[in-house]
Design goal:
single chain; alpha/beta; 14 strands
Length: 353
């Protein structure tokens, strides 16, 4: 009996030690427009073989509504996820009265951590911009582009050269402004460089013809960030899941989800190899009102087939999932506001929580 008690106490101590382990790195993956039905679709298409979502060590849910609307846009939800504070639709990184909000990236930089962004859309788009910019409208792209260059972001990968050109008058002046900011600009993801701050702008706007791009870009960003002794925060967005939802394109969304899942695989593998890394996978909102229904009401049949049906070409107000992996996965639980998730992540990496 005494031996069993000692084993039990040792097990409890071990679990407590794991739970208390410091989270040094956060990899924050956001599937823009990804609802639970999108995840279910990928499980079904995979014939219910294990997906990366099934491997989550913990799962929670978040409510997505904004401060002024029961159905959010990406700016308000991105702000909540990035800063821990809700705001009105279309607003970025600020409260309705114009007060600038500190983002997870801002906090990480102030505490000596490296920071990075990887997206499939333009880097000035609503969700990534919520992590470094402050604007009354998400459509102030030139101002947002300028704010990126003034930010403390260490590496950013995505599209958006058109907005730098517009901001600085022409392409030549834009390249000069980027160089003056301290970023080293690359137009090819395969370019290798050991500069401290790197900006990979691979398209005027969205990145097309990009098979395997998101996983590769995630790996490149991680390789750049992991050299920081104080740790890092990396946000990766599967940006165009949303666009396929707006277009009610199930096949297209499956392709975007596949790319996003490959990036999650890269992040989870990194967390497994680097204790102290927390991987958080969620969405900013659901797009399209996707449902998965039987093709036949006769459930005596062995297989009726399924149909993917869309109820809107806009956003919906349903809750979205949170999948957690790695160190600290047990620290985020239950049903919460999107802003609560942002606040929890800021507290997790703060040296003064």
């Amino acid at each position: 009996m005494k031996r069993l008690l000692l084993i039990l106490l040792a097990t409890i101590a071990s679990v407590a030690s794991i739970s208390a382990q410091e989270v040094k790195n956060i990899i924050y993956l956001i599937g823009d427009g990804m609802g639970l039905a999108s995840v279910s679709m990928m499980q079904l298409e995979n014939l219910y073989e294990t997906t990366i979502f099934d491997r989550a060590e913990n799962i929670a849910l978040q409510k997505t509504y904004s401060l002024d609307n029961r159905v959010t846009d990406s700016a308000a939800s991105g702000t909540a996820l990035a800063t821990g504070t809700k705001t009105n639709n279309t607003m970025l990184g600020m409260t309705p009265d114009g007060t600038a909000l500190e983002s997870l990236m801002d906090m990480a930089s102030h505490e000596g951590k490296a920071t990075g962004l990887v997206v499939t859309t333009y880097i000035q788009h609503a969700t990534p911009a919520a992590f470094y910019a402050h604007a009354r409208s998400r459509h102030e792209y030139t101002s947002i582009a300028e704010q990126l260059l003034k930010s403390d972001i260490d590496i950013a990968i995505g599209g958006g050269m058109a907005f730098f050109d517009e901001c600085y008058g022409d392409h030549k002046e834009a390249i000069k402004a980027i160089a003056d900011s301290g970023f080293v600009l690359h137009a090819d993801l395969d370019t290798e460089d050991d500069a401290e701050r790197q900006l990979y702008i691979l398209a005027d706007k969205e990145i097309e013809a990009r098979e395997g791009y998101l996983a590769k870009a995630t790996a490149k960003a991680l390789a750049h960030l992991e050299g920081d002794d104080d740790g890092f925060v990396l946000m990766v967005e599967g940006s165009l899941i949303d666009g396929m939802g707006h277009g009610n394109d199930a096949k297209g969304q499956q392709g975007e989800m596949h790319d996003f899942m490959e990036a999650i695989e890269v992040a989870v593998e990194y967390a497994e190899e680097h204790p102290g890394t927390l991987v958080v996978v969620t969405a900013d909102h659901e797009t399209g009102g996707l449902s998965i229904v039987s093709n036949n009401a006769d459930f005596n049949l062995s297989e009726q087939g399924v149909e993917y049906r869309w109820t809107t070409d806009g956003h919906s107000g349903v809750m979205v999932p949170i999948y957690l992996y790695g160190t600290g996965a047990e620290r985020i639980n239950g049903i919460m506001e999107n802003s609560t998730l942002g606040e929890k992540l800021k507290n997790i990496i703060s040296v003064h929580p």
